[in-house]
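Appendix B: complex inputs.
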Amino acid sequence: MASLGELERAVMDLLWASQEAATANTLRDLLAQSTRSAGGTAGHEGKDLAVTTVLTVLSRLERKGLVERERGTRPHRYQAVSSRADHTAELMHEVLGSAPDREAVLARFIGSVTATEAETLRKLLGHS
Amino acid sequence: MFWTSYFLAVLAIALAWPVPILLSRAQWPARSPFTAMLLWQAIALAGGLSMIGAMLVYGLEPIGDNLLAGLKSLAGMVFRNEPTTALGFWHIFALSAAALLSAHLVFTLLLTYYKIQRQRRRHRELLALLASPSADAARTMVINHDSPVAYCLPGGARSVTVLSDGLMAALAPDELRAVLSHENAHLNQRHHLLLWAFAAWRQALPWLPTTRLAQEAVNSLIEMLADDVALKTESKATLIKAIAIVASGSTAAPGAPAARMAFGPAESDGGQPGATGGAGALVTTASRVSRLLSPQPPLPEALRYAVLGACVLLLAVPTALLIVPGLLG
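Resulting structure:
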């Protein structure tokens, strides 16, 4: 049985790839398929996966603000709030941006450098 | 008692303004970054202690011969409604200011901690979905991004170093090892605790020169310390090359006005936007490289011990002035 973290990842991968809303049942089937094709052997992992587990994963993702539920339809259909590229951009903005407390949140190998600074660096390196 | 408060006030002013300015202009911290780091911590702690201590001692002067006796009588006034006639307006003002400042410092420290933890948790959640564990190194993840980026996200057992595809492609294996050992040094030496404390110190008293100078100095010193660790396993040329490649590759990335607009709210919870970004980082990168290119010998041992002695005195003198009279009396 895959851990919740791995399932979250797998569910997000599916939602990001499809770009349209899917029900927990559909997602469960897709997950079962992918573990069967990837797993090689009998693929009992896929069979073990219950719809309730998928719903748990989806509600965790919803709480994290990564997935939204379409209201009004039964069964509920879920979709990704924003694309994988957008989330990557959000992360990289946090890393590269100049938010005042960023330096306390994470430590970068090199801080932001401007074009002139890069020029100075090249000069410094030229002299060595 | 009276002279104690004046001495502490003078010490507080010296540590808030001229001392940090002199230290931030000095050249020797690049030669012995660890010693300089201790001195900055001593300055910050002694500065806060003497600021609060000066006001406390001044305010308690009429009601006790020493700090402990004064605090005892004050407790009597607060909890048992004893007469407060001995205290003049300025005494009460100083005591309230001391109490407010102490509460403000503790509160800011906790608030900063909470904010940092929240941002890190969110960052880790996204990393778990977007990045994949590196095949080569432990506690390392690779994220799909073109510009060369390397950073570490502290979090106890869940600490992780993140590298971008762009970085992996741009660096040779030995340069990559230098980057990884630099980032691991940050994690192993718990640099995030220093960054947290000095970020909170600045957040609490942003108008005080010492808090800005201290934070910039600490940011720069931890990079030097991490570089020194990387130099133990990799050559100087390798590290310099890695820095140059990452620095020249990341020039295109930061501006990104679209991303800034899209994620504007994230900026709003900090005090002054851009305050620590640009200038501080410039100084850091330039001073790091020039330090590697033209290395200076570390401070002579005698001088290093002198600085350590100064650190001990800085902490011991205000503490002794506050506590010892009470113990003797």
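The longest strand of chain B covers residues 160-164.
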